[in-house]
Amino acid sequence: MISATASAVNLEGELFKDLMKGYNKNVRPMEKSGDITQVYIKMTLTNLISLNEKEEALMTSVWIEMLSHLFIPDITQHHIKIYFWSIFLPFNENCICLCSNKPTNYSFFLFSLLVCSVDGQFEVALYCNALVSPNGCVYWLPPAIYRSACAITVNYFPFDWQNCTMVFRSQTYSANEIELVLKEEDNHTLEWVDIDPEAFTENGEWVIRHRPAKKVINTEHTKDELEYQEVVFFLIIQRKPLFYIINIIAPCVLFSSLCLLVYYLPAKGQSLLYKCTMSIATLLGQTVFLFLIAKKVPETSNAVPLIGKYLMFVMSVTTMVVMNCVIVLNVSLRTPNTHIMTDKVRKILLNILPRLLRMQMQPWTPNHDRNNVFLVPCRRRSSMTLITKAEEYVMKTARSELMFARLKERNGLMKSVLEKLPETARQQSNFQNVSEWFLVARVIDRVCFIVMTMVFFIGTIGIFLMGHFNQPPSSPFPGDPKKYLPPLNNLTDITENGVVADFLG
């Protein structure tokens, strides 16, 4: 058994040498001078591995299928040789394998390269065998893992979609020698990237919306230039934002909303200092989120990502909250010695605004005389005790001495009262003015709370609605209603096999 297999291998090698005797791969097989050789290309996607936004590189695992019909001068003789040797060799009589580390050593057409590669690997990952039929058909299906350039549009990150292209072009022959053509199957030109439902692996971050393929003719070049014709495979993919919503957006929104809670601290004393401290801590946390986003997106000045715009927005809101706290602190600590409050300010901040804001405050009345001093009457002592003590004192003291003593005491009492009267009035006036400045600070604090809350929620909803309405186009190319998808019967068969329609565009 082993010897028979070894003998078959030797015979296959002898046949291979005999068929390739005198073959020159640098000579393009053609019957007449000026004939153009058609090369059919098809790409089958097996896995969209990743899209590195920082490096702007798309990594895919594909199968590149290439087919060409070459001219064989002595086709009858070669067919007889293959048929004769197929009696002894374990392979199909209709084709022969070009068994080599590089089939390009024996076949001229295996030339198509990915011209948009970012890692310098323009060729396939594995040089598998090529099949050559007696009628001149050369078939090659190598696997490849490509890292192609993909320009990233960061305007709506992480609610974005990207249009990545893979461009294949000949680097050896011009359009006067070969013609690149998309492969045809079942009387349909494969104007799309093929997806095998049994071999395709879903990507956890991206979903394929459209996958058209086109042959592009660059009219600015001539047919003698290699850039004249190329085959372009498009992958229009949309990001799944759930990961970023859970890990970045939701914590950022909740963390930023804490800056609104500082308005619930009283606008008095050390509570105002706690307000500023809490707001600044929130601002520092938002800066950390901004650094995390900067490490994810490309370093470009063309656009600002949507999540970056939101972080700048909430940082601006937090900065305004800190400014509000400083202003309220300044107002609440004012005194009549430094600032004078006019009646117009009292009417607006102590009457109109509290009533509109539903604040429980005693309204200010303009008829109230602020210069009057209302002394609180002392508690009356018992009348019988006072009368008894007065009679005893009068009986024991001489009338003249009692008269002069009362006069002296009355003069001293009046002098003391006159000295203390301005100080008492001034203290009561200061207390009333200080209380008014504190009430004004409370009103300003409540107004700032309402304004900042409205700005925060309206801005948050508006910014993220921009990302929600950023959807990929309904057709791959604007103005072209063609879907560039397999026929409906093929889609029905694929859907029945269990592949989600999103993978198919």
TrEMBL record:
As for membrane topology, the entry says: Multi-pass membrane protein
Key word Transport present = yes
Q: Where is the signal peptide?
A: none
UniProt cross-references to Gene3D superfamilies, sorted A to Z: Neurotransmitter-gated ion-channel ligand-binding domain (2.70.170.10), Neurotransmitter-gated ion-channel transmembrane domain (1.20.58.390)
Parts of the chain that traverse the membrane: 242-265, 272-294, 310-331, 447-469
Q: Which InterPro entries match?
A: Neur_chan_lig-bd (IPR006202), Neur_chan_lig-bd_sf (IPR036734), Neur_channel (IPR006201), Neuro-gated_channel_TM_sf (IPR036719), Neuro_actylchol_rec (IPR038050), Neurotrans-gated_channel_TM (IPR006029), Neurotransmitter_ion_chnl_CS (IPR018000), Nicotinic_acetylcholine_rcpt (IPR002394)
Gene Ontology CC terms = postsynaptic membrane
Q: Taking the first listed entry, what is the main subcellular location of this protein, grouped into a coarse class?
A: membrane
Residues of the Neurotransmitter-gated ion-channel transmembrane domain: 248-429
Phosphoprotein listed as a keyword: no
Which GO terms fall under molecular function for this chain's record? acetylcholine-gated monoatomic cation-selective channel activity; transmembrane signaling receptor activity
Residue ranges of every copy of the Neurotransmitter-gated ion-channel ligand-binding domain listed in the record: 13-66, 115-241
Keywords of this entry: Cell membrane, Disulfide bond, Glycoprotein, Ion channel, Ion transport, Ligand-gated ion channel, Membrane, Receptor, Synapse, Transmembrane, Transmembrane helix, Transport
Q: Where in the cell is it found?
A: Synaptic cell membrane
Q: Which family does it belong to?
A: Belongs to the ligand-gated ion channel (TC 1.A.9) family.
Q: What is this protein called?
A: Cholinergic receptor, nicotinic, gamma
Q: What organism does the UniProt record list as the source?
A: Lates calcarifer (Barramundi)
